Each structure stands twice: as structure tokens, then as C-alpha cells.
């Protein structure tokens, strides 16, 4: 049998069945991707979503125990590059990169406790790729995190790899390429892990990814935003659809509600830059999960969702039968993004009602800042002591915008340095060699305290008022405190008194206030290199990232021979492809000229030479 982890294979020119036939680990049933039948026990019913299976329910601490399903779900994702692609709103795009030809890519679905085995095939013309499973904890499984330059070398064109991980958490998430700003070209999709919920509901509407949408390629925009501010998006897509604001072509996303029933909607902000406030005319939404953390139900009229954030909400179809706008509104005057489409919206249609567009425009959002919710309470609680915390240079991470680089106006730094990862020698390569002498451009911070709570005060640039959606890999963090979004100031020692360690908001993306700070804590229980970065593609591209190297010796000791071998094989393949075979190095069109020794920013853009 072919080894489960022998990930790297050269793709035959025709994707034949030989290549695609992934053997299941012996003794385990092999469920096809199409088999999405949930194997929850019968206790998970419309009137009792808190129940899951024997011994597992909404109160189970999922960081401690995971149901054993014995099920492996196999998926294959083929990444291709297309030119002159007709988009969903009728606009032809010069260049897109898609997964299996669709935007967004296929939904990955599993049950809590299933193993996912996902083959990523790179059929791009010249780009490498690596796929990150956003929010997946990857406990003791850092090499499956999919961050090129950190946990792997990129997958070269015409190669593939298999990512294998256990769904230890449940809820709604997404996956995306971590190769430069490639996800902005369309290399992105949703993840739905079925599990218990904190409120009963009748109908699961499924994932609802919303994204800013640009007619230019991400590669063009990365170059553009280096020296200009971010452009407004050309449109906003709801689950891949919308009307073009310019031509009126395309169609609204159209979600059917069943009158009298309660629906679960899984909202995901897969933008590269735009933050939105969502509202559904004449309806409230009840939040039941934030990122992959179930929360006690909280009902809202409108909901701010930062890039990378997810909210699972329930919606009662209890209003008059008809059609209602689901609006995404921009926060005016707060620099949280803008679009040529000034009123992006989808239609929510009551089954049985006449068709047509809604008539009630809905209420204008009242939110005035880019703040995410600070009062959600997780169902599975965490309480830590914060009183002894003293901020100093060992736990402060300052984000700054450097405008002095002539080659690149906007250079973002964390603790004084811009991250520029080395695709050819990922951080984990050093760790597996027993080294921690990373180059400064890897922007690493070693965290070497086993299972302790690690606190960070992240300080925003004191002069540039831009909020950043900060995302951490490998952990959900507690949001202990933050500056007032309406009246921000730099962190002061006395701010520690305002920290809340008593079951505060816990998630994997939170908003860093403009001109202010946010304090987070996570437990050092997951050895490996975990990226923390701003999820605005242009900012991570400009360097706004830091890597926590957590318990390097424990990581090295835990790497299996199979994972190490797959890692080495992939790096050998990448390093023989790049730079010698990448035609882009021959492009010397001015600013974009590359030299063979240049180190490229794998999670972001290239360094100008
Ligand atoms: C990938 O394979 C295709 C088909 O065999 C070939 O045309 C293309 O040149 C290959 N790309 C690279 C980068 O090797
Ligand atoms: C993606 O495309 C490949 C190749 O055609 C196919 O084998 C695979 O099942 C598709 N994946 C999904 C999730 O549809
Ligand atoms: C990635 O692909 C795009 C589009 O073909 C190209 O513009 C860019 O130079 C490529 N980058 C690398 C590093 O190959
Ligand atoms: C969005 O599209 C996916 C894939 O087609 C589907 O599974 C999901 O139900 C859709 N979401 C909504 C809210 O209709
Ligand atoms: C997505 O997040 C971005 C950045 O945080 C924000 O500007 C945008 O408004 C969000 N979109 C939605 C629909 O919430
Ligand atoms: C929706 O709310 C508006 C006021 O915001 C009200 O005028 C309208 O009658 C309501 N429509 C329905 C169908 O309930
Ligand atoms: C939405 O879908 C329903 C049911 O298929 C249809 O009757 C209605 O006309 C559609 N509305 C729009 C705006 O497309
Ligand atoms: C909701 O979207 C529709 C369609 O674009 C628009 O007519 C309406 O004014 C929007 N409402 C709000 C509150 O933005
Ligand atoms: C971070 O910035 C604050 C003020 O903006 C400053 O007091 C502090 O010393 C800085 N910390 C580090 C580690 O540079
Ligand atoms: C920030 O950089 C300074 C200077 O290089 C270093 O002394 C300090 O340890 C760094 N902070 C962290 C948290 O690593
Ligand atoms: C981490 O701690 C272990 C055990 O105390 C020690 O042996 C090791 O040298 C430390 N590693 C680093 C990189 O500080
Ligand atoms: C990058 O943008 C600059 C202008 O900001 C332009 O002169 C240059 O040609 C662009 N480079 C590429 C490779 O598109
Ligand atoms: Cu990420």
C-alpha cells in the first residue's frame, strides 16, 4: 500500500484514476467526498442541537477530547490558472486561479472527529502553492498547517501533496492558499465541520462565504498596493454571486427560507481587504459561534465580520412571507474597506412567496468602528489569572508602518522587522535540524514554556489609524482586553487592570484597534511554528506577520519519519524548480525584476530588488 503520508507525487499529464486513488489507512472505511451523510447519533435533532453522540455534546471540552469516528474523508483539490475567465457578474477577468474551476472552491465537509485527507494538486503555470486550513488546530501536527516558507516548501507546479488532519473542533471555517496573495486570485473555499450547537434549529443553510472581488489579479494588486493605498473592490460576492454594479449582469445570491422555521447560516468573511457589517432586513440574527468557538446565544440586528472571521447565526423565518435584503454595509470613515458596489446585498426569499426583489431597503448600519464583538461568552469556558501580568519587551509586539523604503512605500513590521520568509528553507527545516538560528527576515519569536498561558500585547502603529484583523495559527486565543475603538490610546501599565480573564471572547481572528492595542493569551500546548499575521492580504504581503516558534525541541521530537520524508521530498522538488525553472525570474520589467538569490515573501509578496 502506498504510504498514507507519502504526500508528494508528480502529477501525470492526465489526472488519471491511478493518481487519484488514495488508499485509505487500513481498517478504516473510505468515505467519498460526496458522502456527506452525517453520522451523528439520533440525539442531534431540530429540538436538541446541543447533543451529538454518547459522551460528546456542546459542553464537551473539544481541546481535551474528540469523538473517535474512524472515518477518513478524502478530498482532491486541483488548483488551475485561467485567463480571460468569465466571472459570475459577467465581467471577464484577465487572470484567475481556481480550485476545481469554481469560485469559491469546493466546500469541505466532515463530522467532528473525522480525519481529513486532502490532496492538493498544483496545475498552476509558474506559481507554487500551499494550502492553509484556517482555524484548524493541528494539534501536534504543525507540518500540515500549509504555510509555505514556514511549515513546508511550496508545492511546485505539476506536483501535489496530501494534507492529513483530525477535525478536533467543529463549526465553520475556510481554507486558502498561503502563497503570496494567491488566495485573492480565487484559491479559497469553505470548511464545514458538523457538530453540536448552542441553540436548536431546523434547517442548516450551510456556508455563506462573502468576499470582496476585484477585476484585476491579486498579483497586479499586490504590486499596486505596495505604493498606493488599497483600491476599492469592484464587487462583493455572496457565496460566489452578485450583480455587477457597472453592467447589471450576474445574479443576486438567493437564499430560500422555510416559513416558520429556524435556520442556521454560516457566515465567513473570505475577503482580502473589505470588512463588512451584515444585516437582514426586518430580522434579527442570533450568534451561536464565533470562529470555531460555540458561544452562548446572543441576538443582534447587525454584525461586523472582519477578514477571516466567521459567525454562525440562526435566523427565524418568522416575518411576513416575502423577500428581504441581506446587506453588507461598509463602516464609513473607519478605513475598513470600500467597494465600487456601494450596496452589496443578497436576497433572502421565503418559500412560497412571489419572486422578485425586496422592497424594504432595510436599516442603515449603526456600527461606526471596525470593532468586533467583545462580549461573547464561550460555552466551553476558560478562566485565567491576569493580575500578575506586567507588559515588557518580552511580551509586546509593536506593529509599525515603515514609509522609508524607496522600493516599497508600504512596509509593515512587527517588533521592528518585516517578515520575508524563505520558500527554499522553511522555519520548520531549521527546527528539524535542531537549529534556532533563523535569519531575522523569518521574524520569529521563540516560545519555550510548556503548557503555560502566553500573553501578548499587540500595539498598533501610533500614527496610522488602520485596524488589522490579527489571525493566529494553531491556537484559539483569549481576547483579554483592547483599546477603545472610539477613543484609542497606546497601552499603559494601568490597562492590565481592565483585562478580563474570566471566560473572555476566544477565537482565532480579532481586530487590532487603529492607534490602539489588543491583549491576547494562548496556551503553549502545541509545538511547532505558528504564524500570527494580519489577514488583510496586502498587509501580510507587506510583512505584517510574526512566527511563534513554540517548544522547538518538542516539535523536533514529535515529527514522524513519514512527515519528515514528505517535507524533504517536497523541498527537494521545489528547490529544483525554483528559481532555475521559474520563468518569472527572467522578467526584468523594472520594479519586478528578480535576482536568483532574492528571498521572496512566501506569505506575502516579493522583496523588490
Ligand atoms: C506541467 O505539465 C504540463 C503538461 O504536461 C506541461 O505543459 C507544463 O509545461 C508543465 N509545467 C511545468 C511548470 O513544468
Ligand atoms: C476536483 O477535481 C478532481 C479532478 O477532476 C476530482 O477528482 C475531485 O473529486 C474534485 N474535487 C471535489 C471536491 O469536487
Ligand atoms: C505567479 O503567477 C502569476 C500569474 O501567472 C505571475 O504573475 C507571478 O509572477 C507568479 N509568481 C511566481 C513567484 O511565480
Ligand atoms: C453556498 O454554496 C454552497 C456550495 O454550493 C452550498 O453548499 C451552500 O449551501 C450555499 N450556502 C447557502 C447559504 O445557500
Ligand atoms: C470582511 O472583513 C474585512 C476586513 O476586516 C471588512 O472590511 C469587511 O467589511 C468584512 N466583510 C463582511 C461582509 O463582514
Ligand atoms: C419591515 O420593517 C419596515 C420598517 O423597518 C416596515 O415598514 C415593514 O412593514 C416591514 N416589512 C415586513 C414585511 O414586515
Ligand atoms: C429566488 O428564488 C425563488 C425560488 O426559486 C424564486 O421564486 C425567486 O424569484 C428568486 N428571486 C430572485 C431575486 O432571484
Ligand atoms: C440593501 O441592498 C439593497 C440592494 O443593493 C439596497 O437597495 C438597499 O439600500 C440596501 N440597504 C442598506 C441598509 O444598505
Ligand atoms: C511599543 O510601543 C510602545 C509605545 O508605542 C513603547 O512604549 C514600547 O516600548 C514599544 N515596545 C517595544 C518592545 O518596542
Ligand atoms: C523585539 O526585538 C527586540 C530587538 O531585536 C528583541 O530584543 C526582543 O526580544 C523582541 N521581542 C520579542 C517579543 O521577541
Ligand atoms: C527550551 O527549553 C528546553 C528545556 O528547558 C531547553 O533544553 C532548550 O534549550 C530551550 N530551547 C530554546 C530554543 O530556548
Ligand atoms: C508595479 O507597479 C508599478 C507602478 O506602481 C509599475 O510601474 C510596474 O510596472 C508594476 N510592475 C509589474 C510587474 O506589474
Ligand atoms: Cu491564515
From TrEMBL:
Domain Plastocyanin-like: 87-197, 207-353, 428-553
Cofactor(s) needed by this chain: Cu cation
Catalyzed chemical reaction(s): 4 hydroquinone + O2 = 4 benzosemiquinone + 2 H2O
Region listing for Disordered, in residue ranges: 578-609
EC number per UniProt: 1.10.3.2
Taxonomic superkingdom: Eukaryota
UniProt cross-references to SUPFAM superfamilies, sorted A to Z: Cupredoxins
Pfam families cross-referenced by the UniProt entry: Cu-oxidase, Cu-oxidase_2, Cu-oxidase_3
Keyword Oxidoreductase part of the UniProt annotation: yes
UniProt keyword annotations, A-Z: Copper, Glycoprotein, Lignin degradation, Metal-binding, Oxidoreductase, Signal
InterPro entries: Cu-oxidase-like_N (IPR011707), Cu-oxidase_2nd (IPR001117), Cu-oxidase_C (IPR011706), Cu-oxidase_fam (IPR045087), Cu_oxidase_CS (IPR033138), Cu_oxidase_Cu_BS (IPR002355), Cupredoxin (IPR008972)
Keyword Translocase: no
Position of the signal peptide: 1-23
Family listed: Belongs to the multicopper oxidase family.
PANTHER family the record matches: LACCASE, MULTI-COPPER OXIDASE
Name of this protein: laccase
Organism: Sporothrix stenoceras
Taxonomic placement: Eukaryota, Fungi, Dikarya, Ascomycota, Pezizomycotina
Gene: lcc1
Amino acid at each position: 500500500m502506498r504510504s498514507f503520508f507519502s504526500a508528494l507525487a508528480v502529477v501525470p499529464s492526465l489526472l488519471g484514476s491511478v493518481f487519484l486513488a488514495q488508499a485509505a489507512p487500513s481498517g478504516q472505511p473510505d468515505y467519498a467526498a460526496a458522502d456527506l451523510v452525517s453520522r451523528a447519533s439520533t440525539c442531534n435533532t431540530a429540538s436538541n442541537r446541543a447533543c451529538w453522540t454518547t459522551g460528546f455534546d456542546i459542553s464537551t471540552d473539544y481541546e481535551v477530547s474528540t469523538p473517535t469516528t474512524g472515518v477518513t474523508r478524502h478530498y482532491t483539490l486541483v488548483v488551475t490558472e485561467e485567463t480571460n475567465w468569465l466571472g459570475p457578474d459577467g465581467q471577464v477577468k484577465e487572470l484567475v486561479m481556481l480550485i476545481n474551476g469554481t469560485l469559491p472552491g469546493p466546500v469541505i465537509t466532515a463530522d467532528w472527529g473525522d480525519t481529513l485527507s486532502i490532496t492538493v494538486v498544483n496545475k498552476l503555470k509558474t506559481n507554487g502553492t500551499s494550502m492553509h486550513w484556517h482555524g484548524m488546530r493541528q494539534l501536534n501536527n504543525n507540518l500540515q498547517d500549509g504555510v509555505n516558507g514556514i511549515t513546508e516548501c511550496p508545492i511546485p507546479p505539476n506536483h501535489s501533496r496530501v494534507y492529513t488532519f483530525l477535525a478536533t473542533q467543529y463549526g465553520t471555517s475556510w481554507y486558502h492558499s498561503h502563497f503570496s496573495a494567491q488566495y485573492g486570485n480565487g484559491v479559497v473555499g469553505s470548511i464545514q465541520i458538523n457538530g453540536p450547537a448552542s441553540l436548536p434549529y431546523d434547517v442548516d443553510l450551510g456556508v455563506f462565504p462573502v468576499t470582496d472581488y476585484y477585476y484585476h489579479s491579486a498579483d497586479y494588486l499586490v504590486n499596486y498596493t505596495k505604493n498606493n493605498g488599497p483600491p476599492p473592490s469592484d464587487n462583493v460576492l455572496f457565496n460566489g454571486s452578485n450583480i455587477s454594479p457597472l453592467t447589471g449582469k450576474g445574479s443576486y445570491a438567493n437564499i430560500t427560507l422555510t416559513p416558520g422555521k429556524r435556520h442556521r447560516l454560516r457566515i465567513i468573511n473570505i475577503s482580502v481587504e473589505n470588512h463588512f457589517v451584515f444585516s437582514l432586513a426586518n430580522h434579527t440574527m442570533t450568534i451561536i459561534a464565533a470562529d470555531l468557538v460555540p458561544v452562548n446565544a446572543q441576538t443582534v440586528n447587525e454584525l461586523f465580520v472582519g477578514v477571516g472571521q466567521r459567525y454562525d447565526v440562526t435566523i427565524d423565518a418568522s416575518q411576513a412571507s416575502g423577500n428581504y435584503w441581506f446587506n453588507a454595509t461598509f463602516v464609513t470613515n473607519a478605513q475598513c474597506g470600500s467597494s465600487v458596489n456601494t450596496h452589496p446585498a443578497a436576497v433572502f426569499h421565503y418559500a412560497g412567496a412571489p419572486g422578485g426583489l425586496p422592497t424594504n431597503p432595510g436599516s442603515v448600519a449603526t456600527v461606526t468602528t471596525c470593532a468586533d464583538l467583545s462580549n461573547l461568552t464561550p460555552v466551553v469556558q476558560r478562566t485565567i489569572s491576569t493580575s500578575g501580568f506586567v507588559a515588557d519587551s518580552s511580551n509586546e509586539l509593536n506593529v509599525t508602518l515603515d514609509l522609508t523604503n524607496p522600493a516599497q512605500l508600504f512596509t509593515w513590521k512587527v517588533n521592528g522587522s518585516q517578515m520575508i520568509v524563505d520558500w527554499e528553507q522553511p522555519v520548520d527545516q531549521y527546527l528539524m535540524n535542531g537549529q534556532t538560528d533563523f535569519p531575522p527576515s523569518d521574524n520569529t519569536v521563540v516560545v519555550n514554556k510548556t503548557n503555560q498561558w502566553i500573553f501578548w500585547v499587540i500595539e498598533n502603529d501610533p500614527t496610522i489609524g488602520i485596524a488589522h484583523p490579527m489571525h493566529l495559527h494553531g491556537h484559539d486565543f483569549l481576547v483579554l482586553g483592547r483599546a477603545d475603538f472610539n477613543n484609542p490610546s497606546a497601552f499603559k501599565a494601568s490597562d492590565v487592570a481592565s483585562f478580563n480573564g474570566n471566560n473572555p471572547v476566544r477565537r482565532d481572528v480579532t481586530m487590532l484597534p487603529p492607534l490602539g492595542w489588543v491583549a491576547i493569551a494562548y496556551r503553549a500546548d502545541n509545538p511547532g511554528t505558528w504564524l500570527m499575521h494580519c489577514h488583510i492580504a496586502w498587509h501580510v504581503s507587506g510583512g505584517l506577520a510574526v512566527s511563534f516558534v513554540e517548544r522547538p525541541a518538542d516539535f523536533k521530537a514529535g515529527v514522524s519519519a513519514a512527515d519528515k520524508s514528505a517535507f524533504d521530498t517536497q523541498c527537494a522538488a521545489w528547490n529544483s524548480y525554483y528559481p532555475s525553472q521559474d520563468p518569472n525570474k527572467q522578467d526584468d520589467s523594472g520594479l519586478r525584476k528578480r535576482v536568483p538569490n532574492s528571498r521572496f515573501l512566501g506569505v506575502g509578496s516579493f522583496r523588490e530588488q
